Amino acid sequence: MCMLLCSFKGFMDGQEWTNWANRFLNEAYDPSVDPNIKKFEVILTPDHFIRLRKTYQQGKQEYFSFKISRLNTLDLKPGNANTDTIAFKTLADDIIYQTFEDPAGDLDSMVTEWDIPIKKISPKRLDSLKEALTFLKGNNP
Q1: I need a surface site. Which of 6, 74, 78, 83 has the fewest CB within 10 A?
Q2: Do 126 and 78 form a contact (C-beta atoms < 8 A)?
């Protein structure tokens, strides 16, 4: 995949980078680290927001969202044999974090770092995600 992607990256436009990043996020996200997740939706929108909505068995929902233009760093944190974590860090408290139907009470807050569990990936594949997000960050709609 990287060979093909790397050879065509000079020709990719914003929509192609968005499509590629969406495919990456959906293939790499690993919901198995939390067995209580009933469903999830992760998406990179055409206006360059990364969003994740998780719905749990009991009905609680968690929602994360941030605009790529606010991205400061993207790091890979090693995990176990099957899972790593991508850490998105923004310039300030630019990541929206909300909960809905939480028995402990709903939250609506802003954070600077957001960690998402992913399946093991190669460093080259992570570099390709960084490249896509860097391109999209510089080409905000």
Answers
A1: 78
A2: no
Name which of 77, 25, 72 is nearest 53 in CA terms: 25
Kindly report the pTM of this predicted structure: 0.83
Distances (CA, A) of 61 to 1, 67, 97, 103, 119: 34, 20, 11, 11, 22
Beta bridge partners of 109: 97
pLDDT digits (tens, 9 = 90+) for 57-107: 999 999 999 999 999 999 999 888 889 999 999 999 999 999 999 988 899
Q: Could you identify the residue written with the tokens 């990719």?
A: 12
The structure tokens listed for 86 are 């991508």
Of the candidates 10, 60, 4, which has an alpha carbon nearest to the alpha carbon of residue 34? 60
Mapped onto helix, strand or coil, the DSSP state of residue 100 is: strand
Tell me the pairing of strands 49-56 and 37-44.
Answer: antiparallel
Mention every residue, 6+ apart, whose C-beta is less than 8 A from residue 139.
14
- Burial label for 104, CB within 10 Å (0-12, 13-18, 19+), is exposed
- In contact, 25 and 42? CB cutoff 8 Å: yes
Cβ-based neighbour number of residue 89 at 10 Å: 17
Whether 49 contacts 42, CB under 8 Å: no
